[in-house]
Specification:
Largest sheet: 3 strands, antiparallel
Number of helices: 4
Number of domains: 2
Shape: globular
Radius of gyration: 17 Å
Number of strands: 9
Structural class: alpha/beta
Order of helices and strands: EEEEEHHEEHHEE
Strand order of the largest sheet: 1-4-5
């Protein structure tokens, strides 16, 4: 059973769907702008890149996505994933809110700032420390919300491989 996100959720007001933004890397995937409880947000399925967009510059989906979020002033990102696990103790429908990750990426740029500079875009250099890659307060909210939603098993720790 699927749920149409974000429009099918109680209290969510969808403002606009299918918004494509221009970026130095080509057009973005289509975003939805919406709000709930006075909080505005952007939603985009990461794998929502269409074939037309993919043909422009196939390896820049992440750069396009994060460029739009950066320009919009986004301060918190929630990424969803439905995936398998190497942990045989996990059951289908278990919820894991990770507290760490392993980046197996080898062929993509590792820095949005570096990619923008290569495109000739002036951007302030920044450094992000990844000793705590997930926001503790947002993680707590996700754990509490998952439990409140009735998921029988919710784990507040785990490592995800990307």
């Amino acid at each position: 059973m699927g749920v149409e996100f974000p429009g099918a959720l109680d209290g969510v007001e969808v403002h606009e769907e299918g918004v494509v933004y221009g970026t130095p890397f080509g057009p973005s995937a289509p975003f939805t702008t919406a709000g709930v409880g006075g909080i505005e947000f952007l939603y985009v399925p990461f794998h929502g890149i269409t074939q037309e967009i993919r043909n422009v510059e196939p390896d820049s989906a992440g750069e396009r996505l994060f460029y739009v979020l950066m320009k919009a002033g986004v301060t918190k990102i929630i990424g969803t994933a439905l995936c398998g696990s190497t942990n045989r103790l996990l059951d289908p429908a278990d919820v894991v809110i990770p507290d760490g990750f392993v980046d197996y990426t080898t062929k993509r740029p590792q820095s949005l700032t570096r990619s923008l500079k290569r495109k000739g875009v002036e951007v302030e250099s920044t450094m992000y420390r990844l000793h705590q890659p997930f926001c503790p307060s947002l993680s707590r909210l996700l754990v509490e919300g998952s439990r409140d939603a009735g998921f029988p098993r919710v784990f507040s720790r785990g490592t995800v491989g990307v």
